[in-house]
Amino acid sequence: MDTKLIITDDGSHTLYVPGMDEHYHSRFGAMTESEHIFIKAGLASLGTGAVSILEVGFGTGLNALLSAIHADKNRIAVSYTSLEKYPLDPSVVRQLNYGSLAGEGGEELFKAIHDAPWNSSAVITEWFTLEKRVSDLTSDNPTGIYDLIYFDAFGPDKQPEMWSEAVMRRITAVTRTGSVFVTYSAKGTLKRMLRSLGFEVALLPGPPGKRVITRAVKK
């Protein structure tokens, strides 16, 4: 996809896709948004035990980077699987500034995440294992069982097929009782689907520019 590099309000980059009129992250702060939704409402809420994560939408690798940092800092064993239909070109990845903003060792960690091969598992750090899969969730059934789902596809108005009941059923099939689902969207249709599939749905305060987000727990 054709993309344009954008600097968001917290100084971190996002990518704008002109063909979809859509951004990969919030213009109010890409790193702030990811930290708020996926780390604070997701990974950090699960305690200190080993965690298996499924991410829908690898995108820029920002969520993976922040998750790896959290895993190392808190000595939590994280097994991270990420699905992406359209991996970014390495020339685009090299322009992103997340590594330089992530503190000591951030650039090396971000590079290791992107240098990891697709469709096979890679040990990134002592605490973080990554498997990036080229996959289309509208047709592919993911494998594995996960404690935490990062649902970070493009918005429901731009990519409605990714927010369908069929996709949510595929997600449900790889979760267990107590598994957590987090996403930036708070659409009524999404909440109703999740409830019908056995999740207890809650709305949490959102990051800058977003009133609320969705966090759901499998009953």
Describe this structure in words.
The protein is of the alpha/beta class. The chain has a single domain (31-218), classed as Rossmann fold, CATH 3.40.50. It is 27% helix and 30% strand. The protein is built from seven helices and eleven strands. It has helices at residues 30-40, 62-74, 90-93, 98-101, 106-115, 165-172, 188-196, and strands spanning 4-7, 13-17, 22-23, 51-56, 78-84, 121-125, 128-134, 146-151, 175-183, 199-205, 212-218. The strands form two sheets. It has an eight-stranded mixed beta sheet, sandwiched between helices. A three-stranded antiparallel beta sheet has the order 1-2-3, with no helix packed on it. Helix 1 packs across helix 2 (62-74) and helix 2 crosses helix 5 (106-115). The longest helix has 13 residues, at 62-74. The radius of gyration is 16 Å and the shape is globular. The model has no long low-confidence stretch (mean pLDDT 97).
Q: Outline of this structure?
A:
The protein is an alpha/beta fold and 219 residues long. It has helices spanning 30-40, 62-74, 90-93, 98-101, 106-115, 165-172, 188-196, and strands spanning 4-7, 13-17, 22-23, 51-56, 78-84, 121-125, 128-134, 146-151, 175-183, 199-205, 212-218. It contains seven helices and eleven strands.
